[in-house]
């Protein structure tokens, strides 16, 4: 993916960088990673996972039956790892640029404290 990742996609890939997860595990992990700012609904998550699988950024890790229902686990693919790494680096550079600008602005707007002129008494 050459374009910046949308935040939910970035968070899904980040969650899968830790370990393979099933859908509801991903929903919880994305919520935790975003401090509750991003809450994925199941339909949104599974649509995103389908797109990420089609783009070969995510792979099916395994399937198991739990309480009579199929649970599918997903993992980050090597291409997904490379994409997440590149996006993380892009965001890091953006944060560095913003931090430098804010620091310069802070120095420029800081009130000048009066200085004592003269030598030692």
UniProtKB/TrEMBL annotation:
InterPro entries for this protein: Metal_resp_DNA-bind_regulator, Tscrpt_reg_PadR_N, WH-like_DNA-bd_sf, WH_DNA-bd_sf
Domain of life: Bacteria
Transcription regulator PadR N-terminal domain sequence ranges: 12-85
SUPFAM superfamilies given in the database record: Winged helix' DNA-binding domain
Pfam families (alphabetical): PadR (PF03551)
Name assigned to this protein: Transcriptional regulator, PadR family
Source organism (scientific name): Micromonospora lupini str. Lupac 08
